[in-house]
Each structure stands twice: as C-alpha cells, then as structure tokens.
Design brief:
The protein has ten helices and two strands, in the order αααββααααααα. The protein is mainly α. The longest helix is centred in the middle third of the chain and has 23 residues.
C-alpha cells in the first residue's frame, strides 16, 4: 500500500509568506480575475501545505484589500472598484501630499539612503519593464516616504491606499505598449527625492499632487478603447445570379 506523500516542510511562517506572495502576484497581474473564488481546501492542495498557512496568507491579502470575504461565499479576489475611483483618488491625493510633506520635514540621513536605493530599484524595474517589479518598487518607495515622515498612523492609512492603488496602476501599465509610452515612467521618483532631500516642504507637496493628477489621468486614458482606424470592412462582391433559361 502506497502511503500518501508528506507535505512540504517550511520554516515557521515561510509557507504563509510563499502562498501570500504567489497569490498577490497572480491578483495584481490579473492572472486571478476579480471575483475568482479562493477556496482554502483547493489552495491547500495546490500549494501542498496545510490550511493554516493558507488562512494566514488570505488574512494578509485581506489586510491589503486584495481579497474580500463574502457571507456564504467565502473568500474571493476583490473587485477593482471603478465606480468609487473618484473618491479613492481624492483621499489618495490628500494622503500622498501629507506623507511627502512630512518626509521633507522629518527625514533623516538614514531615510535618504533608503529612498535613493528604492529610486534606483524602481528605475531598474522600468528599464527591464517588469510590471510586477514596477508595482512593488513603486509601493515600497512611497511607503518609505511615509515612514520617513515619522507618523505611524499616517503610515498605516497610506499603506492601505498604496496597496489598493497597485491594481489601478497595473491596468495603466498594461496600456503602455510602445517604447515612447514606457519612457514616461523613466526617472519617475527623482523629483520626490530631490524635494525631500532639500527639505522643501512646499515643493514636496506640489510634486506629490502633480503625480496624483498624472496617475488619475493615465488610469482614465488606459480605460479607453483603442480604435483601429486602419481597419475597414469591405463589402463582399455579389455573385451574378444565374437566370434559368
């Protein structure tokens, strides 16, 4: 009699992190579509782990607003809330401006080292044009900006918005197909870095607001359909009817 294969052995917490990272990637890249069910039993079999790390991973993704729990339906991939995007962008703008202002006022030399490294990581991801790396490096940079402001309450609130913003940003990234359009992301965070390093609070505020407006406009542009003006439908020539004699 063949014994069932033993489950993989992970260090404490590593299985949940592995599952969380993989599911996050699939959600952000739309490999897992909005509304897709996330059944603990099925995921346990897929990742060859017990249900405990699956549950922990789903709770982490719930905190990131990437999944949601529905009564009698379990956990599903959260929908991209297009209807409330105007409300989202309004609050995001306020939080981003405040986070960047505080960073310009309170940053330390240690913060600047970290921010420079994260700007380089973002530029490298853009050069490679790996959408997932762009999303993650953008998230990490702006979170580090908030942390440089030294207000833990703002960090928690802004982090939630940044997490949700990743799904809007990915829609925008997929629309940048040509080299010319991809170039708009080059050096995207350099102006943040300069204003924060100079401790210029007003410039930091203006830069953060401008970036939010660009994010808003580019996302709406990405939602527009691309009409192929070169495409035409030629009428099918009619065959002459045969007249019976």
């Amino acid at each position: 009699m063949t014994r069932p294969q033993a489950k993989k052995v992970y260090q404490r917490g590593s299985a949940a992190q592995m599952v969380c990272d993989e599911l996050r990637k699939e959600i952000l890249t739309h490999e897992l579509k909005p509304g897709a069910p996330l059944d603990e039993t099925s995921l346990s079999k897929r990742f060859d782990v017990s249900r405990s790390p699956i549950r922990e991973a789903l709770n982490r993704l719930l905190a990131e607003r990437l999944v949601e729990n529905l009564p009698n339906k379990g956990t599903i991939v959260a929908n991209v809330d297009l209807e409330n995007f105007p409300s989202f962008i309004e609050v995001f703008d306020l939080q981003q401006r405040y986070a960047t202002r505080l960073a310009a006022r309170n940053r330390t030399s240690v913060d600047m080292v970290k921010l420079r490294d994260l700007v380089k990581a973002f530029d490298d991801a853009v050069k490679e044009y790996d959408p997932l790396k762009i999303l993650q490096s953008n998230f990490e940079f702006h979170l580090a900006v908030a942390e440089a402001g030294k207000n833990p309450y703002l960090v928690r609130q802004y982090k939630e918005l940044l997490s949700e913003a990743r799904r809007y940003i990915h829609i925008h990234l997929r629309s940048l197909e040509t080299a010319k359009e991809k170039a708009i992301l080059k050096g995207h965070h350099r102006d943040f870095l300069e204003a924060i390093e100079a401790r210029d609070v007003e410039a930091a505020d203006a830069i953060a607001h401008e970036h939010t407006l660009k994010f808003h406009d580019r996302f709406l542009e990405a939602l527009k359909g691309q009409i192929d003006n070169d495409f035409s439908i030629e009428p099918t020539p009619r065959k002459p009817r045969l007249v019976e004699k």
